[in-house]
Amino acid sequence: MKTSKKQKYFSLKAIGIFAVLLTFLSSCEPSKSADDELSAYLFTYFTGNGPGEEAIHFAVSTDGYNFRALNDNQPILDSKQISTSGGVRDPHILRGADGKSFYMVATDLYVTEQGWNNYAMILMKSADLVNWETSVVNIPEIFSQEFGDVNRVWAPQTIYDEATGKYMIYFSMKQGDNPDIIYYAYANKDFTGLEEAPKQLYFPPAESNTKACIDGDIIPFNGKFYLFHKAEDGNPGIKLAISDKLTEGYQLVNDKRVDCETNKVEGSGIFKLNNSDDYILMYDVYTSGRYQFTKSSDLQHFEVVDQEVSMNFHPRHGTVLPITGKELKRLIAKWGTLNDPLIEATSAQLKKLNVDVKGEAKTIHLPVKRGTDLAAFDPQFKSFPCVTVTPEGPQDFTNGPVDYTITVEGKGDVVYKVSASEDHNPVLEGYYADPDILYSEKTGKYYIYPTTDGFENWSGYYFKVFSSDNLVDWTDEGIILDLHKDVSWADRNAWAPCIVEKKIDGEYKYFYYFTAAQKIGVAVADNPTGPFTDSGKVLIDFKTLGVNRGQEIDPDVFTDPKTNKTYLYWGNGYMAAAELNDDMISLNMKTLKQMNIDGTFREGSYVIYRDGTYYFMWSEDDTRSPNYKVRWAKTDSPLGKLTIPENNIVIQRDDETGIFATGHNSAIQIPGKDEWYLVYHRFSYPNGVKMGRRGGFHREVCIDKLEFDGDDNILEVKPTFKGIDPVN
């Protein structure tokens, strides 16, 4: 059939009209709201083994790294109402296949009464993340023929099986004296029980099947199923097995751990970051009371990202679920509180580690960096969805606190009094400790040589130096010694250095004594900022004069202004001393002695000279203790007998201000003046004292004035936030 030009014209016109109509109709369809996109995260966890700690908690995040607890870190479900034991642990949360239902499973166990033996798990389902229906599945009761002797049912998790259209629950069980094994079973349609008796899911290699396998965690990836699990064989830790099928065929990738720890870990939880190809694998470092976050794009090679992570709670074995903006708002409306209104001050002028929010008192203190204009300062408050803060923009903080109104949808509003001040303590930004201070005649500057802190269990491996013209403004001069690169005899525990400037044959030399792997070494440089070259061997790795306790740590170097001889002091639980040879990298062993210290000595020796008197200072107690403090004694020579006064506190905790663990000090005299300053570390304020033992490696360096009375006694120093004014 032949088509005319006119027919063609009308056909094209009709097509055009139809296209316009389609465009119009599509534009009338409701667009997907930002609230419907995955834009946040829900972390569900429990907090410990004590009474009331085995319960389900929720926390939220907008970036997958920084989490804030909901409900004032109190449980969101009553363990006694939903369990048979009274305790609930190891919660795992899953979004349903329909995208809008949720499933949560957990261990039914109350360790306080049951020890580590239990028999049941809890199944939960919800349509909104707020209201939950719960059921208990007691394995030896329901499946008495197959599993009547089960005495452990641990850490269940759920995954949707697309092949069957069912939800598969997998968990570990222990029968009699046999090792823990990972099993699976399908949940019934109502998610209130199991369809049939569990079957073994994972079969470890034959050479390791006598060891426990627990805490399975499955995620689909690149068409396969990745099973992360805690294996007790070989080097126990998180290991990976992969299969083409969800319910069978898992093969161990290798016997190496995929976690990045050397300590014991359990409870792996993996989740994908929103709008990213990266995944987070997190796990419970349960022997250290901490959590570790690692990141990967291939799910086999992970890097630690703890430095990017913050939490205002201490989780145990939990999981994270990506959620939408709408779901986040719903959770905050239910469990957000006015005591923790989910806001953060983000101004670059802030000392962010030291921002102090007191929810019950409704106060916020903002310590600002030097030179900030407090008459027009904008804290730049950032809030979670459905939380608003007013006023906005710069405010005048010079006349006292400013009232900020914080509104939480569904909870009302509250006024917080927000104050700001220029606080000079801490003097270094970040976590640092054990500061040794030097005034360099060569450069006319001051230098602080600290332990680089913030590493778990004091595991740092490099040293930095900071310089200043006035003791207040400090410049990071970078890494001066890296144990991994620069030292052949140790690669861990870089602690408590000290330094001395010596003029030898008209040239300045810098001798840097440092602790590594509980031994003491020495490195040398031509400038205070290096580069430093290690001597190539250990200086001190021995006990002295019959000492059978403590560690060979915390060196202090001191040059006697009367004789120009230089001495080294060290020890933990004992204070050893010896004169250094002229080469400054070896000891005159004939002078080796133990100082007559008393039972208050723990570590951190430091010696100064003033008006004919030698003052010895040291730290008492443990650096993890809020009571860590400094004491002093005096003598008439560098190796003389110490006179220890009855009241000999140099600095200690201040309960009024909440400054704790003030210890491991050095001191500096302003050249040509009888003007002294104490340099010390404290727990990071305000959170360090809340961290438990971890506060002992989250410390900050501070400086306050050091003074003497008319009888040449050291006056007790009061630790402050304000610190000192710049010195000339």
Q: What does this entry look like structurally?
A:
The chain has 728 residues and is mainly beta. It folds into 3 domains: 34-335, Tachylectin-2, Chain A, CATH 2.115.10.20; 343-422, Immunoglobulin-like (Sandwich), CATH 2.60.40.2340; 432-706, 5 Propeller (Tachylectin-2, Chain A). The protein is 8% helix and 42% strand. It contains 7 helices and 47 strands. It has a 5-stranded mixed β-sheet with strand order 20-3-2-1-21. Strands 23-24-28-27-26 form a 5-stranded mixed β-sheet, with no helix packed on it. β17 and β18 (290-296) form a beta hairpin. The longest helix is centred in the first third of the chain and has 24 residues, at 5-28. It starts with a helix and ends in a 22-residue tail after the last strand. Mean pLDDT is 93; it is low at 1-31. GO terms for molecular function: hydrolase activity, hydrolyzing O-glycosyl compounds.
